[in-house]
Specification:
The structure holds three protein chains of three kinds. By secondary structure, chain B is of the alpha/beta class. Chain C starts with 6 loop residues before the first helix and ends in a 6-residue tail after the last helix. Classes of the chains: A mainly alpha, B alpha/beta, C mainly alpha.
């Protein structure tokens, strides 16, 4: 590698690192605030080092004596619902996107159009009919009552995303497999899916986050405090009448962001080390 | 060949014995007291208040055996959920709401009326309560709620800011403004650099309707005229209030920008005189701010203080479980009997008169100030459109606050919009 | 070819079943409700024809919110699309510390909308916010970004760029991975510089992904609600009031007029549909090699 390129690379990296640090500053503020004792939180000039530091806010969030908070349980609920939703979305979206990208059949464009069109209607207006439906199914305050509607909310987005990606995969590999006698399901599972790991990872992140952070649907669909997912439980930390209790709120925000960060780091490897098309060309 | 007969006989005997034992046990149980029911209870007391409520509920359960399953959701979301859940028969046995929500919930059939016989039988009498709180539970001649406590406005004074502005006495106690002129004069002395003299509202003072209402009532004006049909906001008294609202930002320049967080500014000692809710003071003590609580100054004609009492209500159910209803009544009775504890720990003054003479309460300077305002309490008008009118008011008074619209035109427009509200 | 006539439908079946029951059915019921005077809390509703839609013609707040939403959508498109793309291209070039950089830009996306809103509300607070403090120290005239109708929307866009860039970055990176390295190498041998190969290789091959990002962004922008609500509540005045906020308040706060809110949603649907079709038309190109 030439010297000029090396210098250029170092400069670019340096610039990006500075940008990244600046980018992180608001998030750092969240973290720092969560570690400050209450009387030090609102201060001018702003203090970036939490000294003395306290983990009291985290303790309050996790082990609060409040009977209705039960953050630990809410955490577990959120994990179950989010992972369940991811599984349902990724499976159904991938299966639906494949024929929409690769096969010709009656109604193909109509179905795709309907799916993309459904993205254009705001969730707020679906909420009440969905509530009535879920209530009739007896699914209020159940895991399936959260997982299935959450998955349904992300399904159309998933199909759109995957279909666009499937279109960018060169068809030679599939054609070759077809000539070799593979049936569509085998082509789908053995060629298309492995090649799509990057975008499947991206979809998984999105679906997980969407289910993880959703507040409005669980608010009305869950009537047993034990079944509240994290956002609803964390909302309890916000004082009434907008008198914010920053310490616990920020601590709750950090705790809530951790699983997503983990999901990202795991999926990120898939995205980065996704199998490169050229490697299979030989 | 086995010996079926004895084993069958034995099995039958055992079955019979088991049956007999169960019958005996059931019979014995029904002879003693019924197990206490568990009731569901929704309220919006998030934050520090909520923990105090939990302690009291635990005590209630210990003493009466009635368990309460709470759902605690921030007020705005709580009301939305109530409106969705009750018609689907998924509502709670007991709910705590604000007074101003009673008319529209009652009119929509979300709440069950409380018969006078029932309230009387449980020992709730009007004369035990302060009138504005007791009246707040009525809508169209029927009672829908029993008041608990009285969140209200109070004037917070930041001691440090006052000292630095030279507005404190030799003993370190800050001066207390009682009239508009005193407020303006002091605020002008305080306002300097990034420090402001005067603000009304917790966050977003520009659209703090509760403060606006407080000022309206002080000037004898109100959102609706006395007949509750036409808006009274185009009246000169209301326009005068709107002009004051604009002047503190644009003319006297003593108030922070429309979206400032006044509470944080006060805590950071960047705000001197702050009219805000009584519920803030426990948070101020946690943040270790040096402050004094004083009565809301008389900015206009009368020294009225805005309140928004919490009320206990029974959301409608398709079939009312008598045991659960009794348990809910028992909780209201118990909380009312123990409301002094609530006051001392959560800082909310009771709607009942009796605890007002409790020496523990009168001994706390802030609580004493709150009690002192009892004679001038006022709360929202009993019309189902109150909350909708309030929501429309916000952006318009904000425009007045930032000086984007002249007061008279804005109030005229607001009155028109309120008059156009559908039933 | 052993593909049966039913194969596509079999693939589609599970997803479409989920979609039909939990999406289409409530959507259609919402459409039906838009022609009634349905109210949350009232069991019965009556058919009122197009009355709800007609009322929207007089609802000036609805018009204002539609305008604000369109303004936000158009104004935010370039920053939200271009910033992650630029970062993705740079990060894809083999810089060091990739994992840290990706993680740093992505991290804001893991925060919930309320956290993002509260944090930026605090950062931008005109009295005690850190940004206010530092700007004042640097001698920059301080203004209340969120309380000024001229700047409020831009402050919201800034917050949103901070929040979602990380995710679009991930999508772009996934798309860039699919472009074979040899193409760039061949172009480099032919003497094409970075900019040239960006326009002739990267953009065309990234087109389906870019189109996806654009369409999703537009659809999402028209439905923007969360962060605006937390940052400004639609203020100052109604300067940043968006359609979904208006809808949400109509359905769940002010009047619980679910019929009216549904009508608003379907009007919004038509608006977005028109915008999206325009985009598809403009950007339709080869989507396969």
């Amino acid at each position: 590698m030439s010297r000029a390129v090396r210098v250029w690379r170092v400069l670019l990296t340096g610039l990006l690192v500075i940008m990244a640090i600046a980018w992180l500053l608001p998030a750092v503020w969240v973290l720092v605030t969560s570690l400050k004792p209450t009387e030090n939180i609102v201060r001018v000039p702003p203090e970036w080092i939490p000294w003395p530091a306290t983990i009291g806010h985290y303790g309050e969030v996790l082990f609060s004596s409040s009977r209705t908070a039960r953050i630990g349980r809410a955490f577990f609920n959120s994990i179950v619902v989010s992972l369940g939703s991811v599984a349902v979305v990724v499976l159904t979206s991938a299966m639906a996107a494949y024929p929409l990208a690769r096969m010709r059949f009656r109604g193909r464009d109509l179905v795709f159009g309907l799916l993309v069109g459904s993205l254009m209607v705001p969730n707020a207006v679906i909420l009440v009919p969905q509530y009535v439906l879920v209530q009739r199914l007896g699914w209020l305050s159940t895991y399936q009552g959260l997982i299935v509607p959450e998955a349904a909310m992300t399904f159309a987005f998933g199909v759109f995303l995957l279909r666009q990606f499937f279109l960018t995969i060169p068809s030679e590999l599939e054609d070759a497999a077809r000539i070799d006698g593979a049936d569509p399901w085998q082509i789908f599972t053995r060629i298309v899916l492995p090649l799509s790991q990057p975008v499947l990872g991206a979809l998984a992140i999105f679906a997980f986050r969407s289910a993880w952070n959703d507040f409005l649907w669980p608010l009305i669909a869950v009537n047993k405090p034990d079944m509240f997912p994290l956002p609803v439980a964390l909302a309890l930390l916000r004082g009434a009448y907008a008198a914010e209790s920053y310490g616990p709120i920020m601590a709750g925000a950090v705790l809530s962001a951790l699983p997503l960060l983990i999901v990202f780091l795991v999926a990120n490897r898939r995205i980065v080390e996704g199998v490169r098309v050229s490697a299979l060309k030989g | 060949m086995s010996q079926p007969t004895p084993s069958v006989d034995r099995r039958r005997f055992l079955q019979g014995a088991a049956l007999g034992a169960t019958a005996f046990a059931l019979g014995a149980r029904s002879a003693s007291a019924q197990p206490k029911p568990t009731i569901t209870y929704w309220n919006g007391l998030t934050g520090a208040d909520g923990k105090i409520m939990d302690e009291l509920i635990d005590q209630f359960t210990r003493e009466t055996g009635i368990r309460m399953e709470q759902q605690r959701i921030v007020w705005a979301d709580l009301y939305a959920k109530l409106q969705v859940a009750v018609p689907a028969d998924e509502g709670p046995d007991l709910a705590l709401i604000h007074t101003v929500e009673v008319p529209h919930f009652a009119s929509d059939g979300i709440l069950e009326p409380m018969a006078d016989a029932a309230t009387g039988a449980k020992g709730f009498k009007g004369e035990d309560y302060l009138p504005s709180t007791w009246q707040g539970g009525m809508y169209q001649g029927k009672r829908y709620s029993i008041p608990l406590d009285v969140p209200q406005h109070v004037l917070y004074i930041n001691t440090k800011v006052m000292k630095e502005a030279g507005l404190a006495g030799p003993d370190g106690k800050p001066k207390v403004p009682g009239t508009r002129d005193e407020v303006l004069a002091m605020a002008k002395k305080i306002t300097k650099g990034d420090t402001f003299g005067f603000a009304i509202g917790t966050t977003n003072p520009g659209r703090y309707t509760w403060g606006f209402h407080n000022l309206l009532w002080q000037n004898g004006a109100n959102v609706y005229a006395a007949d509750l049909k036409k808006s009274g906001l185009a009246e000169p008294a209301a326009i005068e209030v709107a002009e004051f609202w604009s002047s503190i930002q644009n003319q006297h320049k003593i108030a922070p920008p429309a979206n400032a967080n006044c509470r944080d500014a006060f805590i950071a000692s960047k705000l001197g005189l702050w009219i805000a809710g009584s519920w803030n003071f426990t948070g101020l003590r946690d943040a270790k701010v040096e402050f004094v609580a004083a009565p809301v100054p008389r900015i206009f004609k009368q020294p009225v203080v805005w309140t928004m009492p919490h009320q206990f209500t029974f959301p409608k159910k398709k079939a009312v479980d008598a045991a659960k209803r009794d348990a809910a009544w028992a909780h209201i009775r118990w909380m009312s009997d123990h409301v002094a504890e609530w006051t001392l720990k959560a800082g909310q003054v009771s709607a009942l008169r009796k605890p007002h003479s409790d020496s523990r309460i009168t001994g706390d300077p802030v609580l004493k100030t709150l009690l002192g305002q009892a004679g001038t309490w006022q709360s929202g008008q009993p019309t189902p459109k109150w909350v909708a009118a309030e929501n429309i008011t916000r952006p318009i008074i904000e425009n007045v606050y930032i000086g984007q619209r002249p007061a008279a035109a804005a109030m005229g427009d607001l009155a028109k919009q309120i008059n156009a509200l559908p039933d | 070819m052993r593909r049966g006539a039913f194969t596509p439908y079999l693939f589609l079946a599970p997803g479409l079943a989920l979609f039909a029951v939990f999406r289409v059915y409530p959507l259609l019921e919402g459409l039906w409700l838009s022609f009634t005077n349905a109210r949350l809390g009232r069991a019965q509703q009556a058919f009122v024809g197009a009355a709800n839609y007609a009322r929207l013609l007089d609802d000036t707040r609805f018009h204002v919110s539609l305008w604000n939403t369109a303004y936000y959508t158009v104004a935010s498109t370039v920053p939200i699309l271009a910033v992650p793309l630029l970062l993705a291209v740079l990060l894809n070039r083999g810089v060091a510390m990739r994992t840290f950089l990706r993680g740093a830009f992505f991290f804001p996306f893991t925060l919930s909308v309320v956290t993002v809103g509260l944090t930026w509300l605090w950062l931008l607070d005109p009295v005690i916010g850190p940004s206010t403090y530092y700007l004042r120290a640097a001698g920059v005239p301080v203004r209340s970004w969120l309380a000024d109708p001229a700047t409020a929307m831009w402050a919201i866009i800034l917050t949103t760029v901070w929040w979602v860039t990380g995710y679009y970055l991930v999508i772009y990176l996934a798309g860039l991975q699919d472009i074979p390295r040899e193409l760039y190498e061949a172009a480099a041998i032919d003497g094409a510089g970075g900019w040239r190969s960006f326009w002739s290789i990267t953009m065309p091959l990234l087109r389906p992904v870019f189109l996806f990002v654009l369409v999703t962004h537009v659809i999402g922008s028209f439905q923007i609600f969360g962060q605006v609500f937390v940052l400004t509540g639609g203020g100052p005045g109604d300067a940043t009031r968006t359609v979904v906020q208006h809808l949400y308040e109509t359905a769940f706060q002010n009047f619980f007029h679910f019929g009216s809110a549904s009508a608003m949603a379907w009007v919004l649907f038509v608006v977005i549909l028109v915008f999206s079709l325009l985009q598809f038309r403009l950007l339709r190109g080869h989507t396969q090699y």
